[in-house]
Amino acid sequence: xxxxxxxxxxxxxxxxxxxxxxxxxxxxxxxxxxxxxxxxxxxxxxxxxxxxxxxxxxxxxxxxxxxxxxxxxxxxxxxxxxxxxxxxxxxxxxxxxxxxxxxxxxxxxxxxxxxxxxxxxxxxxxxxxxxxxxxxxxxxxxxxxxxxxxxxxxxxxxxxxxxxxxxxxxxxxxxxxxxxxxxxxxxxxxxxxxxxxxxxxxxxxxxxxxxxxxx
Length: 215
Ligand SMILES: Nc1ncnc2c1ncn2[C@@H]1O[C@H](COP(=O)(O)OP(=O)(O)O)[C@@H](O)[C@H]1O
Ligand SMILES: Cc1cn([C@H]2C[C@H](O)[C@@H](COP(=O)(O)O)O2)c(=O)[nH]c1=O
Fold this sequence. Notes:
Layout (H helix, E strand, L loop, with lengths): L3 E5 L6 H13 L5 E5 L8 E3 L5 E3 L1 E2 L6 H10 L6 E4 L7 H14 L2 E6 L10 H9 L2 E4 L14 E6 L2 E3 L17 E6 L1 H6 L3 H5 L13
Helix pairs in contact: 3-4
């Protein structure tokens, strides 16, 4: 028996760190895995965590066929017990279906990691397929926090710290980007709906305070 597990959460909640830990744990017990990622912030053919660890990975492209990736390795005599699939939100729905087939017909565990929704709170097509097909969906224990202290459940895209709602679904980037840059910030639903990032919430009001004429 093998499983397709989707580990999900907001940006910056520890998914890539867990992906590296899962690989380490399984590998040290003698299991053989293959690590995949797509558009990691650190560059192509990498899986990197903000904690500073990075390992080589097979870069997923539009041409990647996971069924062929596993069959090809096995026909060359390579053992494949599990796949680590990071940034899975960027995979095509057909590739998620290939992963499900790899689990069911080749008995390979697949551990997929990714965010579910984009900066407009719309599901990524790959994540939607994972939610539909996974044996288990696990929400990460380390919960990211909104600037207000509530649990962060949404990913905002920012330009110069200000939330934007227009743009391409896929723009690779990091949380905490500097002024002027496209970046991301995790927010609670209330502040995502209000478009209120840390920078805009703490910015002084653009209009001066009214004069106190009471005295
Ligand atoms: N210097 C640090 N010390 C301790 N924890 C850190 C540090 N930098 C980042 N983290 C933790 O790393 C996590 C982000 O890890 P990462 O695997 O890159 O996230 P994700 O893949 O979900 O975007 C956050 O939960 C944060 O708490
Ligand atoms: C919300 C959102 C995110 N992205 C990108 C930004 C990052 O490159 C990755 C998420 O990586 P992480 O390891 O989970 O931090 O996704 C995007 O392209 N579009 C979006 O709407």
